[in-house]
Target: Acyl-coenzyme A thioesterase THEM4
Amino acid sequence: MGQSFCFGCSPDNPIGLHLECFPQDDGTWATYFTPARYHESYNGIMHGGLAATVLDELIGNHLLKGLGRWAVTARLEVRFRKPIPIGARVKFVSRIVREKGSLFQVAAWAELPDGRIAVEARAEMMARETGLASTTSFSQEFKQLPGLE
Ligand SMILES: CCCCCCCCCC(=O)SCCNC(=O)CCNC(=O)[C@H](O)C(C)(C)COP(=O)(O)OP(=O)(O)OC[C@H]1O[C@@H](n2cnc3c(N)ncnc32)[C@H](O)[C@@H]1OP(=O)(O)O
Model:
């Protein structure tokens, strides 16, 4: 398998989020992320699309590293309840709700340091038969990927 450049979790992606996702005792998975100014939307708050990206990434890691399933995101619904302040250390958590065939329903959320829920999401993830993370296999198809020269 080739080197992964996953935007969310690869340590080798120079502009990636470098997330480290880990299992918890209750079967959920979690990661921490502290947004900096360059993750901002309006002044002082984290960009919502990036918060959704962190949740999406956590869910993908949960299924891959927790269950050994390579899954793509088929649907992602996000509700933004509270702004995430720049500089806040936020905990993101995912929980598998249902598995039906190759389709997984997963709930995920972001917790502010004071315990309030800032973001809630529900995802539908479609498991694929083979590994998806290899940039080698993609580059065989596309010959050259911008940013990976
Ligand atoms: C290095 C490690 C990194 C790990 C973390 C990575 C996390 C990041 C995750 C991502 O960002 S993945 C990238 C973003 N997602 C994609 O690129 C997915 C693009 N979409 C697809 O590839 C296809 O649409 C998909 C695989 C989801 C489904 O296509 P298929 O051709 O396999 O299925 P099809 O559309 O024929 O549907 C098959 C069945 O699934 C059902 N289905 C498909 N999508 C569904 C959905 N969202 N909800 C419920 N059912 C769904 C569909 O109704 C149907 O049911 P029936 O067979 O009963 O008719």
User: Anything to note?
Assistant: Confidence is low (pLDDT under 50) at residues 135-143.
